[in-house]
Description:
Blueprint: E1 23-24, E2 36-45, H1 50-53, E3 68-77, E4 80-86, H2 87-97, E5 105-108, E6 113-116, E7 118-120, H3 132-139, H4 144-149, H5 154-162, H6 166-182, E8 185-191, H7 198-215, E9 218-226, H8 237-254, E10 260-265, H9 272-284, E11 288-293, H10 301-307, E12 312-315, H11 321-328, E13 333-336, H12 338-344, H13 352-358, E14 362-364, H14 378-389, H15 393-399, H16 402-407, E15 425-428, H17 435-438, E16 445-450, E17 453-457
Parallel strand pairs: 2-5, 2-6, 7-8, 8-9, 9-10, 10-11, 11-12, 12-13, 13-14
Antiparallel strand pairs: 1-4, 2-3, 3-4, 6-15, 15-16, 16-17
Bound molecules: N-(iminomethyl)-L-glutamic acid and fe (iii) ion.
Amino acid sequence: MKHAHDSHDARDGRRAHDGPLLHLLPGAGDEGGPDLLMTGIGQLCTLHVPELEAAGPRRGTGLGALGLVDGAALAVRNGRVLATGPQSEVLAALAQAAPVGPRTRVVDAGGRAVIPGFVDPHTHAVFGRWRQDEYERRVRGETYLEIAAAGGGINASVRDLRGRDEDELCALAASRLGEMLSWGTTTVEIKSGYGLSPDDEAKMLRAARRAAREAGLDAVLTCLAAHEVPPEYRDRRDQYVQLIVDTILPRVAREGLADRCDVFCEPTVFDLAQSETILRRAAELGLQLTVHADELEPFGGAALAARLGAASADHLIRIDEAGRAALAASSTVAVLLPGTVFTLGLKAYAPARAMVDDGCAVALATDFNPGSCPILAMPLILAIACTQMRLTPAEALTAATLNAAWALGRQDVCGSLAPGKRADFVLLDGPDFRLVPYRAGHNPVAGVFVGGQEIILNPGP
Ligand code: NIG
Ligand code: FE
């Protein structure tokens, strides 16, 4: 059997491995055999590389290290990864510590590849109607900001969402999240931000939580009351900032409606001082921070995120050298959203190569929303990231799994197939992870497992 450590190029997902390729949960013998054993995996991308684990999110050449094993097996117990490695070694280790028994379900992958479930760390997945009318207007030449100024954009979705009840929003979101799952996403971040009042923001976050539970995905929720200034506050913008700080965020924290707080930090929306006020209040309330930063203008949003210790700074299309340096020197993950640039038909993508070369920890997300990015499929995001931002397929996979988990503070739970993590993984319909970005537009998912439970499983070739 040819093992991954035969090859040494970090950029194609393979690295020299000093240690063994077998990984077994410590104390594996304590609780009986596996519930699930997947054998015949042509290529297993564990993303688990112990020597890189202590260094935080993956940067530089580490971004291309996929912990690849050819001819592999994966064992799951109690919803968690029990063992991964070359099949013969996994079987031998299990025979010693946790023998396969009658209750073990064995699934043959038939030579196909397995990757961790995608983690999508930036979505606006709760909304009412789609905005295909604005799409057509942009195709005909209007810009996103012109459409917003004429009453479209975020406020169009706000008007729409305020008129719908929680059950309806939940049903709409659950069906979209189910679609995400069918494209391999197993953990998703969901933002509020189309309510923009205390009750409507709360309604949105409750709908998001319920929808994720119904769809069977793990969700991280973010309060984005600072997405836009609602029409009733148009002429008293600072009072809306005060409403967020005095009323909305304390309620979100008190009622446990969200885990994080986001701000759309742009000169035309919330300026640096307003953004900082909101983010500092959120931090006081125990919420994790994230920022929509440097999307339309190089404005210092990334540097602000880094300075406040935000988990992520997102978009970054217009980030400058100072912003890149600030992120590189911080633990803030740079979440890139190339589907938005693609959908808006813009020419310039975030400078992903420069960011990787500077040492930023880069992640990928969809930005799924009814305005600037109706794409919810992570495989298509990987395709755009490779061709338009020149990430390698291996870098893109890390950015969409392990680094995306770091962006959500969920690195101990998901994002890689390290022993002990939740067994969230995707069986691909081909033998090589590079088929995912290469076959843009194709759904490469043959099976999805969340916590070791099969959600989708198509028969083998
Ligand atoms: O991330 N940047 C702000 N918010 C969204 C757009 C949302 C909308 O147009 O409804 C974004 O691109
Ligand atoms: Fe967004």
